[in-house]
Amino acid sequence: MTRANGENGDVGLKLLQVDAFTDRAFAGNPAAVCLLERAADPAWMQNVAREMNLSETAFLSARADGYDLRWFTPAAEVDLCGHATLATAHALWSEGLLEPATTARFHTRSGWLTADRRGDWIELDFPGQPAAPHQAPPELLSALGLRPQYVGKNRTDYLIEIASEADVRAVRPDFAKLRTLPIRGVIVTSRSATPGVDFVSRFFAPGVGVDEDPVTGSAHCALAPHWATRLAKDEMVGYQASPRGGTVRVRVAGDRVKLSGQAVTVLRGELV
């Protein structure tokens, strides 16, 4: 853990793989977490993310008032990522780099983000990203094969509400068509038919190299305010109905969204 430039040497960089938004291995959303001693070259970080071939790889380096945190998909750097932030906070505590009662503070392209331990759960403090009503491009609905009840858009993603949880689970997008659209991703959601869950969702982002993201924290920054209005409640449970699946507790607090999840380390290694 002595270099941030990827050169060969006797000691490498510590690298973990963490399954986020789950309490068991091989579920939720896997993220790689690379622990740096100093800032790294963005091209090198992109190469590492491509090598890891996960939806996100997080790169962490210490600073006086917390940590610098950046996220890369195999194809691009992104401005906000929930599951890799959850994975990074879990890594700091599980590897003994941060005391359990200490708040993890991250400086990111989306400003300062924090994480706190709440028993077996980790709570992230993220900016809300509500979607405003928006006309869906016909090619987007064609690629998804959907008849929406509502379409919204925020700075990065479309949010499409459809009739039922069964419909959400049945979506089979045309990823080749989605890749041609100038958007980061699209959230498909509905009310939940499952007891104890308020809403379900799926997230597709082939334009940044992720056909379907298993569990997406940043998408819940749009889902939370959307469903808070629909359901007239500020605290909810969301389930992302990807093949791996994952649970996200959400709480709307003004213009912020509190995202809570669990995480499990599945791999520790060294990048040499």
Please give a quick description of this structure.
21% of the residues lie in helices and 40% in strands.
Q: Explain this structure to me?
A:
With 272 residues, the chain is of the alpha+beta class. The protein folds into two domains: 115 residues, Roll (Diaminopimelate Epimerase, Chain A, domain 1), CATH 3.10.310.10; 123 residues, Diaminopimelate Epimerase, Chain A, domain 1. It is 21% helix and 40% strand. The protein contains six helices and 18 strands. It has an 18-stranded mixed beta sheet that branches. The longest helix has 15 residues. It starts with 12 loop residues before the first strand and ends with a strand.
Q: How much strand content do the residues show? A: 35-45%
Tell me, what is the CATH class of the largest domain? Alpha Beta
Determine the number of helices (DSSP H or I, runs of at least 4 residues).
Answer: 6
Distance between the ends: 9 Å
Q: How large, in whole angstroms, is the Cα Rg?
A: 18 Å
- Strand tally: 18
The overall pLDDT, averaged over residues, is 95
Pattern of helices and strands: EEHEEEHEEEEHEEHHEEEHEEEE
3D shape: globular
> In CATH terms, what is the architecture of the largest domain?
Roll
